Amino acid sequence: MSRILIAEDEARISSFVEKGLVAAGFATTVVENGLDAVELVLAGSCDLLVLDIGLPGIDGYEVMRRLRAAGASLPVIVLTARTSAEDTLASLEGGANDYMPKPFRFDELLARIRLRLADATKGVTATLSVAGLELDLRTRRALVEGREVELSAREFALAEELMRNADRVLSREQLLSRVWGYDFDPGSNVVDVYVGYLRAKLGAAHIETVRGMGYRLR
Ligand code: CA
């Protein structure tokens, strides 16, 4: 199990990221300032760092500088509210492997985390396979009984979430927060609409409606 350190001082965002990562099977630790992040990484207790730039004490740039100076090679994904090209460049030149401008969707962050972890540990399998459905998480290809189907990014993320939780019922709220993110209107029927799209592409029998509860992939 990969261990993800989340360095973020805004509780709303760190808990959103943490919940999603735990649901996706990761072990997580949250710290709220830069010095704690440096200490934990250098103690060797994490595989990937999700790093906010605007942290109290020392900021994310300084965290990265200290980590790289100390020889830490773990992947770092920077979260930044600053979307200017200079800040992005500064993050990447400072040793970040990737960045996410806020606000971001959880599925986008998750995809980047998986990609960076896969880069860091080449050869680890990155396909999901359930009941004749197959998703290649690196190439983003989807197969139904060996036949390729085109999925949009959101359809792919929804299929991935359902497949990772095969035979378990996922509520609309769970799917909304994991696939659409914290900025989405909870009253929206977007989940039902996308389940409809997926049924058309993957075969209606794969996704069961559980009345009053949500959806389940079989
Ligand atoms: Ca912050």
Order of strands in the sheet with most strands: 2-1-3-4-5
Query: What's the β-strand tally?
Result: 12
Number of structural units classed as domains: 2
Uncertain runs = none
Task: Specify the number of helices.
Answer: 8
H/E element order:
EHEHEHEHEHEEEEHEHHEE
- Largest sheet geometry: 5 strands, parallel
Report the radius of gyration as a whole number of Å: 18 Å
Topology (elements, then pairings):
Elements: E1 3-7, H1 11-23, E2 27-31, H2 34-42, E3 48-52, H3 60-69, E4 76-80, H4 85-93, E5 98-101, H5 106-120, E6 127-130, E7 133-136, E8 141-144, E9 147-149, H6 153-164, E10 169-170, H7 172-180, H8 190-202, E11 207-210, E12 214-217
Parallel strand pairs: 1-2, 1-3, 3-4, 4-5
Antiparallel strand pairs: 6-7, 7-8, 8-9, 10-12, 11-12
Helix pairs in contact: 2-3, 6-7, 6-8
Calcium ion (CA) binds next to loops.
Describe the structure.
The structure is a single chain. The protein has 218 residues and is of the alpha/beta class. Helices cover 41% and strands 22% of the residues. The longest helix is centred in the middle third of the chain and has 15 residues, at 106-120. Strands 2-1-3-4-5 form a 5-stranded parallel sheet, with helices on both faces. The model has no long low-confidence stretch (mean pLDDT 88). The radius of gyration is 18 Å and the shape is elongated. It has 2 domains: 3-120, Response regulator (Rossmann fold); 127-217, Arc Repressor Mutant, subunit A. The chain has helices at 11-23, 34-42, 60-69, 85-93, 106-120, 153-164, 172-180, 190-202; strands at residues 3-7, 27-31, 48-52, 76-80, 98-101, 127-130, 133-136, 141-144, 147-149, 169-170, 207-210, 214-217. Strand 7 (133-136) and strand 8 (141-144) form a beta hairpin.
